[in-house]
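Researcher: Re-running this chain for the archive, since the previous output was lost when a drive failed. Same request as before.
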Amino acid sequence: MVMEKQFEEIIYSRYQTRIRDMKILKVDEGFEQILGYSAEDVEHLQLHVKDIMLDEDWEDYTKIIYAKMASRGEAYLGHRLKKKNGEIIYVFCFGRAFQSEEGEMCGEILITDITNTKKLSKQLENLTDINSELNMELADKNRMLESILNNLAGGVGVFDIGNKKITVEYISESFYKMFDLKKGQLGTEGNEYINLAFEEDRKELKRQIKETLLSNKMTIGEYRFINKNNPESYYWVQVCLSLLAARKSVFSICAVCVDITDKKKEELEKSAQTEMLKLVAQGSDELLFSYTVEDDSMHISKYMDGTTITVFDDKDFIANLAQCQLIYSEDKKEVSDVLAKLTAVKDTETVEIRVDFIGNGVYLWHRAMLVSVADTNGVVKKIVGKLYSIHEEKLQSQELILRAERDSLTGVYNHSTFVSKVSRFLAEFDETLCALYMIDLDDFKLVNDALGHYAGDDLLCDTAVVLESVVNTYGGFSGRLGGDEFSMFIPDVVDEDTAYMVAKTLNKGIRAIKCKAEHSASIGIAVDTISKSLKFDSLYYKADQALYYSKRQGKDRCMLFCEKMDEAKPVLNSKFSSYSDEEDYLLDDISDVVYVTEMNSYKLQYMNKAAKLGVGLDEDDTSYIDKHCYKVLQGMDLPCSFCTNKLLSTEKSFISHHKNLNNGKEYVLKDRIVNWHGRKCRMEMAVDISDADKVTQVLSNRYDIEDALVSSITQISTGGEHSLNYSKLLETLGEYYGAKHACLVECDSNKLYEYHEWKSANSNSFGKKLEIFYKETVRKELQSISSKKGALIINHIPDYPYKTSDLYSFFLENRIWSMYSVPIKDNKSEIIGRIIIFNPQLHSGDLKLMNLLSLYIGNDIVSRALAEERNYEVTHDRITGAYNRICYMDYINRRQNLESVGIVIIDINEVRNIFDEFGQSFVDNLMIDYYRLLDKVFPKSCIYRIGDDDFAVICENISQCDFLDRVRALKGQLKIGDFTACIGYVWDDYEKDIKRMENHAYDMLYMEKQKWYDQKDEHSYKWSTLTRELVKKDIEDGMFFVYLQPKVDYSNDRCYGAEALVRYAKPDNLANVIDRLEKSRNIKYMDLFVLENVCKMLIRWKKEGYNLIPVSCNFSRISLLEEDMPERINAIVESYGVPKDMIEIEITESVGEMEHEMVTRIANKLHTAGFRIAMDDFGTKYSNVSILSSMKFDVIKLDRSMVYNIDKNIASRTILRHLVEMCTDLGVECIAEGVETKEQAEYLKEMGCNHIQGYLYSKPVNIESFEQVYMKRDEKIKNSLQ
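Model: Regenerated structure tokens:
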């Protein structure tokens, strides 16, 4: 017990001295406890070490402690000291040297009062001599202890430390077993046992021994020990040291060693996994989370810049989930359910939820991947996983779904989606009454023709709004089926009356839409009970039938489907009018009877004016619709016995003779099957032949024109591209008149022409010869000999009055002996074209068919011109006529598969000032002038006006040479009067990413703008100019300065180069300053500042006799965009007379974002000038690897992120090894950045990469410090590792 108490009283102190005079500079509390001198005493007395030292011990002290510290070493010694009260004590002293902040050499000394230890040691010796019985008892206990120690899992050793050596006093058998040693295999020299530790670990083991001696406390360390019998393997050993005794300057320590190899391997594996997770987390936007089941706690963290940041931490997570603002309210149940599921069963799950980490109420989509972790009993204790943003992906997905499901114009469901949704409702629900509505806008074409397609589109969109309003009120959804036809589905209606009420609300809403033209809608309704047998097609058919009958009753009506549609009753009353379209218009002009009936029901669908007048109906009367034809026309109650329905076909007309008993007249009937508004119907034409003298004429002429009209109507109804329709119409006309050529010539007030031609099978095309009809003289000739309505018949070409005209020559050259022509007029009765028949052989002098078709064609030309005009307004700039920004953005978003592309951005300078000075009209004219200038150099199709003062030119599949020639031609003409413009341009045939190229063109443009502002006399207040002035001032004031970091050849520890890095004296973050300079395009000033300072430094080194080493300077991508930057670099270096091979240009990884042509051009210029080029931060972006194939680099610098964990991560080592091999194969020097440990350096050396840069040797230092350490001739730098 006395021994334990004495050891407990041992204390120690640490104090500092100045080595040159051994003055005591600083003491701690232990100093006062041991020697009695306080810090104030030491300061007041100006105490030196010699003042407290006995004279007899001073000589040994100076030889051992002082001498070692003076040579920057360390030593220990036992000696005596005088306390403040004069008492003499024994101390154990340890001293080592260090350099103060002022650069002065100082010593740090540790002392321990061992006076009591010496006394105790003496007492123990006396006790041992006096009490032999106790010695015997102790011997027995020692044997017992030795038996225990020999059978321990670990090994035990006792070592004496003193007299400058370590001696083995005792080694347990278990120690030998653990290290696979034979007794006596190692001698009694303790260093042999220390040398079993790895060389890298010995220093730390010795430090532990010193700490144990000085602190008199148990210490624990973990080290690698060599397997003496198998040098390739090693043990991980935990070493526990404790001080046993201290006597006569000799210390006994006990070492307990435990094999922890297996444990360490597990820890390393876990550590590797953790580091891998950290790398994964740090290299992405992922967050890691952990949910603890026991205390219902949720912890979410993010790994950033080597630090784990807590994003969310909450206990009672599920208990308080309802109040939690982190998760979107609609997603909380899903979170609760998935946690409950994974708590019950060990499993994995993935969920998508909306989360607000910022707390601003904006919830972003994230995907959570969860894994439950169970204990050995299978009980889930934790749920862990990762969380990452999918917001952009979700928005894009929703947008794609929206595009796929919604009508692009109105925003309601499109046809296919509407059908799918209704079908799904019918399949999923049962026993409810539903209603399907078919809505068709009345006379919608008239709205388009009268007001234009924009007005028509507005009406469609407003109708959709009304539909959505109704379905929001009554439940359900709506869709656009096509054109002006909509549909609406309400899955749950009370009864038919409710369905009527909904229709009434809908019609009222549509009528209330603001539109300059009259508008309304016809509605058909089908109401049915949802059941498994009810299908969409059935419901759709009924609603469509009801709509059909509704339209036959007039406008603005609604019909409910019933089994006998003639029982369908109108729901709404409004102004009565009949349905009409282009087919009706043409047939109404025929003087003979025309009517249309359904084939199966015999119900009338259409009667022309002649037919209605023949049975005593008014022209506007539509009461006949859906009445039986045999009743209305023949006065019969049953179908006619002479009905020809069974004899008809769609191929040709069936001709018969009949006498009408109602009026007593005789008719020739011509019947055929037609498609009438989607229904199979019979069309009959009846020619009155009561006058026998007309029979021959009717049979030879009338039937032909009716056939032609039916054929024309069929062509018109097919729709399609206008030129194809015109060709078909001309074919009908040519065959009707028995001609070999029929043509249509269009011309408008702007003298824009177009022609269409039909020729018979055995005839030659006139082709461009028809352009003769474009001539103003020819048009005037024809007009002068035409009728008042513009029609012209020339039966005998030699009678043509203008014998010397070009048209007469055209007639003779092409053997034309007769011609029919009718004018095509617009809605203002202006002639906009002609229909011309050459050499007609049939229907002499009959222009009726031509006149009828000219009306249709005139209307179509006007409609088409309006559509083209509207399209032009949408896609073109109204001032210049160039394509507008809408077209430009559409091009950028859709264009792909180009062989090459060139982009030019043009910005007219000071447009705002020009506007203020001269007004908008002047600016508009200036924009027109610049557009015309662009039009001289580039095709019109390439030119876009993208802003008030910006134009863009995009040239597809153009060679670099041609593109640059055009750019040079444009640059030489950019000044118009007193006004100027700047341009930026890029060309690429490699990646051809147009959006990225546009950004780079703008970068170049801004560079040019800066130069332009530099040349202006007046001060510019632009932000970039202000930033430029600030950076220039900072450079002048010395706020920027250059540091150097050595590049070292690890194979011989020699510095072979350096990298110049800029530092900033102000408190602003340097990265923010650089970012600001890049955004303002002023980074070049800092880059050139560093280059110039490096040149000055190299010249000074040369004068002072240093061996020069290459120094690399970093240049931003923004700086390199300056067209003359390679020349400016060359000029600076040459002005100082620095050898070119001493300057290395480092280009950051963002050069991979530059165009192939630009990168090659920069590389060629720099190499031609004699500079070396280095790629910095290699491996951080995909583009770095591809750029190696296009740009010749002299040096590749591997980014620190690739070196960081090569000693722990096999995958990292594999990737790095291949990169080094690739550089070697390419003949490129490879240097690794960010090397901080010898382990990393050894791995790199093994891979063949000896050139390294990083904190292992030195962080960036000022030039003076760099010169002191690295620029001494032929001096190795191994000391820099210490």
